[in-house]
Amino acid sequence: MMDATAKPLRVPPEISVYAEQHGIFDLIQKMVSSLLTNRPEDPIQYLIDMLKKSSGDEVPRIFILGPPASGKKTIAKMLCDQINAVLLKPEDFFLDDVSERVKEALSYKMSNKEIPNTLWAMLIQERLSKVDCFKRGWVLVGFPTTREQAVLLQEASVLPQHVVLLDAPDTVLIERNLGKRIDPYSGDVYHTTFEWPSDPNVQKQLVKPDNISEKETAKELLAYRRHYHGMFNTYNNICKTINADQPCVDVFSQVLTYVQQQHRSAAPFTPRILLYGPPGSGRSLQAALIAQKYSIVNICCGQLLKEAAAGDTKLGELLKPYIEYGQQVPDNLVIKILKDGLSNFDCTTRGWVLHGFPRDVEQATELKDAGFVPNRVVFLDITDDAVMERLTLRMTDPVTGERYHSVYKPPPNPKVQSRLQRNPKDSEDNVQHHLDVYHASVWEMEKFYDNVIHINADQDPHTVFEYIESCIVNPLPKKIQKPKTAELHV
Question: Would you list the DSSP string of 346-369?
Fold first, then answer.
């Protein structure tokens, strides 16, 4: 008898699916990280309180950093307006005169002394512990500026998810700084050339900030460049440098795209991929490329049905008439075949890529009810004209079995051309019918599945594959949603 302790440990597939859906691995990682960072006296109670306070959704925690005149505050304000996070600027920390730490910092400021970095770290930690930051998330702009400050923030458990470094040539930054103007009432920043307010009243009250001369700006830039690499290395894994020498809208678009990305997780991941698209979009080819590279199971619905019909089983006997006469197989039979195929050991352990089913929301619902939920849904988009060109112009040589295409792969000589045959399924009427069926369901299918990935399939197949591959290996972008009104006034 085999020793039970020597048997390989196999985790049931349902457990891995549950863990992935609820982010169990990342939750445990977050709890352990928080424990080791804060080192509470009562770890159990600390974790209980942490889970009670957790909103369930990860709120943004972002640093916007960069040299003077790189547009940090402007981009940070636009970002907070978009994601409804709390905008934090170091100069605003002194508005709260209740805190003892704020009073201590003000005493340094009033004496024209530099505020110690340790006190800065405590001020920021204190501000981030407030309910609005906890519920809505936060964007801290312009701090830290040195590696020492960054390390102190880490020790104080101030850990951003994303760090954005805005940068531009020094000549550009100096020119920008000379034209900077500030509204003393709102704190908004304007520029004499690039962003001048349209309101005449605002124009009159703008003031020129101190220390923006070319000499002072060059001095600040030199100090920033001296500390840049140390600060960058502190946040190397979560940091992205963005060129600030471009229109503000373009900078903001790149920043927003980056902060919506999720960093790669060490959690186990079993691909469950659904390829959806019109006929001729290349689903079969892409599925084969994915399965070959990542050793996952290629599940072609049509092929499964043909194999089942060829088998000497009761189910095969039921399927044969539909396959032989080219009729649509009832959904209940298709689901039964797919359930057997997707439940096999290889699919549950290595993952799968499914194509050819579902074709509409009813089928998608039945697949979901059967317990098969894809974690990547890729829509291969292509125009009807391109589909027609791909399908109606392809032919086969009955002698060699070689496939040809009038445009992309014409026959080598007139002799081969004369014997080529076209599949009746590739007639214009038949292709148009399948396109009509696809268009009737595509909008509802997109609503049914969350985080649908759209890829232009009217390009080189290997280019399409590279796009699909990047969507598989990288986490899906997170949707940053604005909290409910009730949460804003907690």
Answer: HHHHH-EEEES---SHHHHHHHHH
Q: Is the pLDDT of residue 55 over 70?
A: no
Q: What is the pLDDT of residue 441?
A: 93
Interior angle at CA 35, CA 29 and CA 38, nearest 5: 135
Q: Is 257 helix (H, G, I), strand (E, B) or coil?
A: helix
Give the contacts of 176 (CB within 8 A, at least 6 positions apart).
69, 71, 168, 191, 194
Distance between CA 138 and CA 60 in Å, rounded? Answer: 6
Place of tokens 């691909």: 271
Does position 484 have pLDDT exceeding 60, yes or no? no
Question: DSSP 3-state assignment of 459?
Answer: coil
Q: Would the pLDDT of 486 be above 50?
A: no
CB contact at 8 A, 391 and 279: yes
The pLDDT of residue 485 is: 42
The predicted structure's pLDDT at residue 488: 38
Enter the tokens of residue 323.
């396959």
Angle at the Cα of 73 (from 231 to 114), degrees rounded to 5? 55
- Pick from 262, 232, 256, 89: nearest CA to 167: 232
7 falls in which pLDDT band (50, 70, 90)? Answer: low
Cβ-defined contacts of 289-293 (< 8 Å, 24+): 289/461, 289/462, 289/465, 290/353, 290/465, 290/468, 290/469, 290/472, 291/353, 293/469
Provide CB contacts within 8 A for 355, sequence distance 6+.
274, 275, 276, 283, 284, 286, 287, 299, 300, 301
pLDDT of res. 54: 64
Distance CA 435, CA 384 (A): 7
Strands (E), 310-451: 352-355, 376-381, 394-396, 403-405
103 has a pLDDT exceeding 70: yes
130: which residues sit within 8 A by CB, 6+ positions away? none
String of DSSP letters for 104-145: HHHHHHHTT-PPPHHHHHHHHHHHHTSHHHHHH-EEEES---
For helices 331-342 and 314-324, the axis angle rounded to 10 degrees is: 120
CA distance 251 to 64: 12
Q: Average pLDDT in the 437-444 region? A: 93
Q: Which of 263, 260, 255, 256 is nearest to 237 (CA)?
A: 263
At 242, give phi and psi (nearest 5°).
Answer: -125, 135
Residues paired with residue 182 on neighbouring β-strands, in sequence order:
189, 207
Task: State the number of CA atoms in the 13 A half-sphere of 471 facing the CB.
Answer: 22
Q: Please give the distance of CA 452 from its chain centroid, rounded to a whole number.
A: 11
Please, where are the H alpha helices in 378-419?
384-392, 414-419
Share of the chain above pLDDT 90, in %: 37
